[in-house]
Design brief:
The structure is a homotetramer. Chain A has about 280 residues and is mainly alpha-helical. Chain A is built from 13 helices and three strands; from the N terminus they run H-E-E-E-H-H-H-H-H-H-H-H-H-H-H-H. Chain A has a three-stranded antiparallel sheet with strand order 1-2-3. In chain A, a hairpin with a 2-residue loop joins strand 1 and strand 2. In chain A, helix 3 crosses helix 4 and helix 7 crosses helix 8. Chain A starts with a helix and ends in a 9-residue tail after the last helix. Chains in contact: A-B, A-C, A-D, B-C, B-D, C-D. Chains A and B meet through helix 1, strand 2, helix 2, helix 3 and helix 4 of A and helix 1, strand 2, helix 2, helix 3 and helix 4 of B.
């Protein structure tokens, strides 16, 4: 760094990006002027362009769209949705409520798609290394459990015996594979995993929404962390909707349960600070 | 509250909602089974359904879509985008980076559309009370300034002399009005406000993206706070894209400028704690 | 802006601050080298120094400390605490859980102290304008209600008939006033407001924790918005503690109630998308 | 779950905690009535009580206090501080600004203390397994690098050749060990790691603030994740202070650099959507 020119160049490069170009009066995404995209690209197409740097085919865009439509909401029993509603009752604006809710879309709540995509990738690698489908799934599952523990993300549901969203999504991706829109290589992997889990556990644990969208995202070539990212874009819709509905009620400071239902206390009872701090002239003379 | 049945009923109603119905194996939005919507509704249609409780016409859905496409990103000079990128460099996952960024879409950054819709509404009320367009705009602007200060949200841009996104959006909403998709009542209001601002300030301050999307959202019947909510859904795309691009660089703890550019210190210099706390036997014996 | 030197200067000033000075090997707060403060200032003293630019007297620091100690937690029925616990169950780290929880300390949950300080200030202004205490309180309350609605922040509690934290805090500030540590002018205002509310409503609505800490913060000369800020610092302790306790349980995706308690659905039933979209060749050919 | 009583009991236990007991008029922490703690416990003592369930000795409380005092702020070059300031300029309240900033205290920004405590623990385990100090440090470092990569958290600083906060903190913990307040077992481990890093890299990489506070937290018996949690409590002070200072300036929508310094664009140039979407009758008829 030898002078102001170098420092300035360094400052400009500090924020370099390949996503957007901006000059006064000019906004381009991936080299496309924004004014040419408005009214021409669907919202999912635009999501794709920003994440991938290229425009998808209309068929790719529609497959992505189906996944985004399917995950928007799972009701107030989902922590993110409950949080959005409680946040609004605390007197914050929609942006703050949405931020608090989006923040909790972590490994267990919003990361299932990502983890499932990682599992698919492990199986695909084992396939590429020469294993047959079932053997590759077995090796993939073993590798997966070593990283992520015993729960296989994308399969099974605490609430729904069969997730009503999974089948329609799989039907769409199978149709897209038949039409050559996607390769279709992840579909048999996903079903083989379902079968392997049943073999291993002795009970049916069917694919859920996260597994089904993971198939779509993987088929469309998204990296696993974007499985989480795309889920967040989708679930943000439900988060906004519940925050908005809550804001219409005017309730203030809504806790998780009515105050008439007290929470259980499990700690020690009846202690005296005089015992713990018999004489503390420094703090309390 | 007379017994456990009442307490339980109270707990169920605590989280009541008209957005989603859920039973084991059943998910419905506004009374529509989710499996019937997948592959059939566009993502903007689904956003509409959750926020409004009904399915829009395809034409309404496409007008909403154009607004969502237009606002996705404004580059690293936008605080929300810079925050998403810095957050990732701090070692957090995408959900946390997105939460920190979404949180700052407050009154000045994400609230412009909402405020502009409030202004439109004020003008519409004055019209409904019998004033002509220009007089209604003048009264509306006076009311607006009393609440929101001197900057008129939705007009003018610090960076773009003319916002390249505004005209194409207005063209779409004008076409939709011509086709009877929307009433078109907010379009002349929006232009009359632009003219009034020029009269008042003596310089052209053209409608920007927030003004143009405010026209669309108002024409489609969204309440003003949802102008902010819809903007957040749109800008979340750019937030995700920049967070993801940043994550590929591997940089750690990226501040706002290179450390070679020191920040200016404006406070007092060279004070001694011995002067401020000559003898403090309590804390430092 | 005429050259790189100007641009650089502008970049340095962009982030100017009077709080901290930093050079390689040097960190100073308000002109005091950090190494001289460690082990010498209490944590509340340090909070004061950063917010006010000066070191408080030990007595001022201890009064601030009492307020910070009193507000740390209000259990899982407080939205912020419930959110911290749910967040952790979603698989996020402590920073993300704390962020989601801190975010909801908005006008109704964390802003009560700030609003109460604003009320005190309104009464003080009326006193300064020549009104007697009771008349000033009446005018102050009228002004307050016009801005903040009918609930007087700082008085009354949904859960505690008498807030056990209020009296001990008031006793400390009264003692501090007797010792000349603070002026004591806000103490009679706070009691007079309690009396006025009882006169107006016909029932006792005693001062709560927010009212008592508002007295302390006002007596110590903090601006009203810092009433919220200091509360956030205090409540962050409970947020962290509950997030940590929750993390020890290993529970995943904890919603607000057991799933055996279904939430009530209030929306329309049994609608068919075929009716809403009889023929939509664009989206579903 | 056989009836409403069971469901209610399940709801009460859903939120069970050992931190706080609450009944109307009663608030207890770890069995101590809150009114007995106000004015008697220091703020760090209270933090300890909530996190550990017991009251520390005054000496333990003061050692914790020193660590909390030392980490409050590192200026606007720290992402968390820059974010707090930008957030405020976007028109959000202090709670939202603090949430956005606290959220980014992730593995690289706020997790250094936690990681350093994990390293100390690895070395302590190797010691307990019979290795001498230097050999235990070598094994510990190898284990650490396998998990966390090549950077050793708690040592070295991008900005300060010597961190002015480290030595004074170590002096306090050494004095506490001499007085029997803590065991002192982590102090030699911390120094031996510094020596080992120098041996391995050939250059001095001295302990920084995160290393020094990690020694204190470990000596006081905190679990490693609480190293991050305690840092967050401390840094929240600087976050609040900078948010507050920024709010006094009235600036709106402050990006990371002046707009006169454009960000570098690295993507493709001059593409036409007509090439990417030659004919898309579905979206743009």
């Amino acid at each position: 760094m030898s002078g102001p020119d170098d420092a300035l160049k360094s400052a400009q490069d500090w924020w370099k990006t390949g996503i957007i170009k901006m000059r006064p009066g000019v906004i381009e995404f991936g080299g496309y002027p924004v004014q040419d995209l408005i009214g021409r690209l669907s919202f999912p197409d635009m999501i794709w362009l920003l994440l991938r740097g290229d425009v998808p085919t209309p068929e790719q865009g529609r497959l992505l769209e189906a996944a985004l439509v399917a995950s928007v909401d799972h009701g107030p029993h989902a922590p993110s949705i409950a949080i959005a509603r409680m946040a609004v009752s605390c007197g914050v604006e929609l942006n703050t409520a949405m931020a608090s809710a989006v923040g909790v879309l972590g490994d267990s709540h919003g990361g299932a798609g990502q983890q499932c995509m990682e599992l698919f990738e492990m199986v695909r690698e084992e396939r590429a290394a020469g294993l047959g489908l079932d053997a590759a799934v077995d090796r993939g599952l073993d590798r997966y459990h070593a990283v992520h523990g015993k729960i296989v993300a994308g399969y099974g549901h605490r609430f729904h015996p069969v997730d009503p969203r999974a089948r329609p999504l799989l039907a769409l991706v199978e149709a897209a594979a038949a039409d050559g829109v996607v390769s279709g290589e992840y579909v048999p992997i996903a079903w083989a995993i379902e079968a392997a889990i049943q073999r291993r556990t002795g009970k049916p644990i069917p694919m859920n929404i996260d597994g089904a969208t993971a198939v779509i995202f993987a088929e469309l070539g998204f990296a696993p962390p974007l499985g989480r990212g795309l889920f967040i874009l989708s679930r943000s819709v439900g988060i906004l909707a519940h925050a908005w509905e809550q804001s219409q009620t005017g309730r203030r400071n809504m806790g998780p349960m009515p105050k008439e239902i007290p929470f259980t206390y499990t700690g020690p009872e009846g202690r005296s600070i005089d015992d713990a701090r018999p004489a503390d002239p420094d703090v309390d003379p």
